[in-house]
C-alpha cells in the first residue's frame, strides 16, 4: 500500500528530516535530535506538521443534535468558535477514537480525528447520521482531510511567533474583539493568510501554550516557511513525531492505541468527565446517544483497573506493554501493564502511564516494572507529570 504524503513533504526533506511510517503516512520522526526538539518546545517554540490528522465537517440544521447522539459530549451546547475534547464510542462504551470538535458556525462543526482512525470515524459518523437524520433534521458529513493541512506552533513563545507572522491578518467576518493574544484555550478564530482562509485554534498536545492552523493544503508550504521565518528570533525549531510523543507523555495526555482503545471506556482512562449523561432531548428526556446505557452503568461501578502515572526511581525506562508488578521481589505478582513510557527530558527521570489494579493505585505506592527481565522500582504519582508555568 502506498503511503500518503503530507503537503509539507518536500519541506521536511529539505530540512533533512528522518521520515517514518505512521498510520499510513510518511511523516517526520525528527529533524535534529529528539532531545533538542523536545527542549525547544518546553523553552521556546516547536513547529509541527499534523496534516495526517483527519478533518471531517458536519454541517446542516441538525448538525448539533446529531453530534449529541453520535458522540459522548454535549456538542449542541458548544459556543460558536469554541472547541471541545470528546469521544466516539461503541454501544458497549469502548472508545473508537478521541476527538476535538470545533464549532465554526451556527450549523457547522469540524471534527478532528486521529490519523489511524480517520476511516472508521468517517464511517461511523455517516452511518449514525443516516440513522437519525429523520429525527434531527438535515445533516451532511463531508470529509475535508485531503484538502486540509494542519500545522501547529507549541511552546512558551508560540504567541510571539504567531504575532510576528505579518501575512496573518483578521478575517473580516470574525469577531473584531478577538485576536490570537485574547483567544481562549480551546477556542478558534477565522483569519486570513496571504489572502486565503485559515482557522487558528488555541489547542495542542504538548502541555504548552500553542496554536494550530487549519489551512488549505496548497497554502501549507508557504505558511510553514513563514512560521519558521517569523519564529527564528524566538527560538522556533521544527519538531517531529518523537518529540511530540515525549511531550504529550509528560503532559499526561492519552494516545489512542496506548491509553485508549475499543476495550477501554472513557471512565477507565480517568476521562469520565467528557461523558455527558445529563444530555436531554427537546422534551427533557435523557438523550439516547450511542453507548449511553453502557457508560451510565460503568459510571456507577467499581473500576477493574485505574490509569496512573509512574515515576521511575532508577534510570531504565518502562515501555509500552511492559508488566507492572507489585514490588521488586522476584515472585511479586503482575498488577498492571504500561501503556506509555520514556525518559522525561524535562524532569530528568523516567515516566510512564499504566493501567493497574485499584488496590495498588494510591499515590505514593511503590511498585516495579519488568524491564527486560529486571524489576525496576517505580512510584505512583499524579498525572500529569508536567504542568507549564503560569
TrEMBL record:
This enzyme catalyses: N(6)-[(R)-S(8)-aminomethyldihydrolipoyl]-L-lysyl-[protein] + (6S)-5,6,7,8-tetrahydrofolate = N(6)-[(R)-dihydrolipoyl]-L-lysyl-[protein] + (6R)-5,10-methylene-5,6,7,8-tetrahydrofolate + NH4(+)
- What protein name is recorded for this chain? Aminomethyltransferase
Q: Where is the Aminomethyltransferase C-terminal domain?
A: 305-386
User: What species is this protein from?
Assistant: Cellulomonas wangsupingiae
Domain of life of the organism encoding this protein: Bacteria
GO molecular function (one): aminomethyltransferase activity
Q: Does the keyword Ubl conjugation apply?
A: no
Instruction: Give the record's subunit note.
Output: The glycine cleavage system is composed of four proteins: P, T, L and H.
Keyword field = Aminotransferase, Transferase
Give EC number(s), comma-separated.
Answer: 2.1.2.10
Q: Which family does it belong to?
A: Belongs to the GcvT family.
SUPFAM superfamilies found in the cross-reference section: Aminomethyltransferase beta-barrel domain, Folate-binding domain
Q: What does this protein do?
A: The glycine cleavage system catalyzes the degradation of glycine.
* Ranges where the GCVT N-terminal domain occurs: 8-279
